[in-house]
Write a structure and sequence with these properties.
Number of strands of chain A: 12
Shape of chain B: globular
Largest sheet of chain A: 6 strands, mixed
Radius of gyration of chain A: 13 Å
Structural class of chain A: mainly beta
Strand content of chain A: over 45%
Oligomer: heterodimer
Helix content of chain A: under 10%
Radius of gyration of chain B: 13 Å
Chain lengths: ~110, ~110
């Protein structure tokens, strides 16, 4: 089945440390991939997206993600985490603009001061 | 200006009641969705409409009935509410493939 998987349920990092959140995908063709962030009690905000082209994608709030076809991965990174980055992060994928967007189970990021 | 707005933000009701959630987007998008987020934060698509036409209908109980009066609105009506319907319901819209989400409507069934 077509899906995305987030293997880490919960990650804790210190403020100022680097961050990498993992996402693996399982699609027959190159999917459209997304990272969303959800702060407590809020909706989902798009951080970045990959449709095609350059495999290193820059997003908002200093986040970036790299599409690696050989590893079926689309990991999210940030060089220096801020306390305000504490939130739930969702990887999502779809096979085309008309298909449904499927979400991973989310990774909860906790930031210690 | 809120791009995707949902009302109400909170609903608390008794089992067996009927409730509706309304969604409006001012982005000019053609496609709108309803997603359900359970207590474990898992997001699952329920329905999708494109230009008022139903295009995705996941295995959702028929107590849930979406309605799209025009492409800017997608409402969700739920009959005979059950405890398991307690969740946060998100409306979203898209034109180019990325989804824009509303802030969610938290439904609590007692």
């Amino acid at each position: 089945a077509q899906s995305v998987t987030q293997p880490d349920i919960h990650i804790t990092v210190s403020e100022g440390a680097s961050l990498e959140l993992r996402c693996n995908y399982s699609y027959g063709a190159t999917p459209y991939l997304f990272w969303y962030v959800q702060s407590p009690g809020q909706g989902l905000q798009l951080l970045l997206k990959y449709f095609s082209g350059d495999t290193l994608v820059q997003g908002i709030k200093g986040f970036e993600a790299e599409f690696k076809r050989s590893q079926s991965s689309f990991n999210l990174r940030k060089p220096s985490v801020h306390w305000s980055d504490a939130a739930e992060y969702f990887c999502a994928g779809r096979t085309g603009t008309a298909s449904k967007l499927t979400f991973g189970t989310g990774t909860r990021l906790q930031v210690t001061l | 200006d809120t791009a995707v707005s949902q009302t109400p933000k909170y609903l608390v009701t008794q089992m067996g009641n009927d409730k509706s959630i309304k969604c409006e987007q001012n982005l000019g998008h053609d496609t709108m969705y309803w997603y359900k987020q359970d207590s474990k934060k898992f997001l699952k698509i329920m329905f999708s409409y494109n230009n008022k036409e139903l295009i995705i209908n996941e295995t959702v109980p028929n107590r849930f009935s979406p309605k799209s009066p025009d492409k800017a609105h997608l409402n969700l009506h739920i009959n005979s509410l059950e405890l398991g319907d307690s969740a946060v319901y998100f409306c979203a819209s898209t034109y180019t493939g990325e989804l824009f989400f509303g802030e969610g409507s938290r439904l609590t069934v007692l």
